[in-house]
Amino acid sequence: MNMNIVCIPGDGIGPEVVAEAKKVLEKAASVYGHEINFEDILMGGASIDVHGVPLTEEAIATAKAADAVLMGSIGGNTQTSPWYKLPPEKRPEAGLLKIRKALNLFANLRPAVLYEELAAACPLKTEISEKGFDMMIMRELTGGLYFGERKTFEEDGELKAIDTLTYSESEIRRIAVKGFDIARKRRQKVTSVDKANVLDSSRLWRKVVEEVAKDYPDVTLEHMLVDNCAMQLVKNPAQFDVILTENMFGDILSDEASMVTGSIGMLASASLNDTKFGLYEPSGGSAPDIAGKGIANPIATILSASMMLRYTFDLDKEADAIDNAVKKVLTEGYRTIDIMPQDEEGKKKVKQVGTKEMGDLICERL
Ligand code: NAD
Question: Where are the beta strands (DSSP E) in 226-347?
């Protein structure tokens, strides 16, 4: 296969972790007989420094012409960086919002996996964490409460504020189809999360999801109310495969699910549109506190690259190989600083490595 991948190294640790993910992709391509053409574009602070804006129209056009985008992260220290003296629409984060909009990325995927080797970082009780978990939170990204009409006004001598939560059938259907497609590549279970006992938008969500489910008889569908889901994520996370939900519920639940894994440097993510195109990036930020030190964990970006192979290119075997190489390196006891055990006994059993060495170790095991 021939793959055209645009990379956005970005700011802070972005260029360091993207370099390792590229290396892993190149190794996987050579092992399995594929060709990759990489092209870099500037975004965020890196683009402001060169072009005066966080994302140029040319950069957007280059991204649109690619099969997929692999991103590091953008932004600097929000207290000290001169980028944050600019008006909001010229700051690094404006580039991210612009590219998401330009590429029509409506489906956000965040896997939350507890690796046996990192179970000590999980804040849940041992009897819960020892069962492990591997779930995918699928969040609608461009509709709902965050995009509805809003206003603040005065009535009867006091201020009132209104936010509107709107979803159309087509918006729900397209994300539900993605959710079921992704469940087919996993353990064939979708938990659709809503608040159908109260909200009309949730009742429509449930109706449309049930319609879509008819085309996927091999996938089990269950419905769960969002308040129950928030509890189940800490009580019994092993029960979940794909969690399919609307924008605001997904925003909150995906952060909750990430935190129970215990490590930001391990969290991959993807944002997809209605073609096979996707933007793949680690969930963390640009970590200016450790940028340039060669100690950032590249695994979240490497796992994002593996998601790209699975969801944009349908190369499941190659994606499995990367995921297994990551697991192997962890089993062998290699750790970056963020996933080091905290206790002295634990520290003696593992070996601390830097960003580049972690990338090399994963490549060697492919
Ligand atoms: P952050 O995620 O960058 O850092 C939080 C903590 O996690 C830091 O201590 C950092 O060192 C650590 N960390 C993050 N990724 C790591 C990795 N791969 N390996 C080891 N440690 C890691 O969050 P922040 O400090 O709040 O934000 C820093 C900048 O990143 C800000 O400018 C923010 O706007 C931006 N940001 C960008 C994105 C994005 O590009 N999508 C997302 C979130 C934040």
Answer: 242-245, 268-272, 278-282, 334-335
Q: Mean pLDDT, 10 residues at a time, over the chain (366 residues)?
A: 98 98 98 98 98 98 98 96 94 92 95 91 91 95 92 97 97 97 96 98 98 98 98 97 97 92 90 95 95 98 98 97 97 95 91 98 98
Residue position matching structure tokens 């994520």 = 233
Task: For residue 11, indicate whether it is catalytic.
Answer: no
Candidates 64, 90, 195, 328; catalytic one: 195
* Ligand 1 probe mutation, 18, 83, 141, 286, most atoms within 8 A of CB: 286
Pair (254, 271) in one structural domain: no
Decide if 116 is inside a domain: no
| Residue 46: CATH number of its domain | 3.40.718.10
Domain containing 51 equals 1-111+263-366
Let me know if residue 117 belongs to a domain: no
Verify whether residue 146 is a known catalytic residue. yes
CA 141 to chain centre: 12
User: What is the model's pLDDT at position 289?
Assistant: 96
Q: In the 8-state DSSP scheme, what is residue 111?
A: E
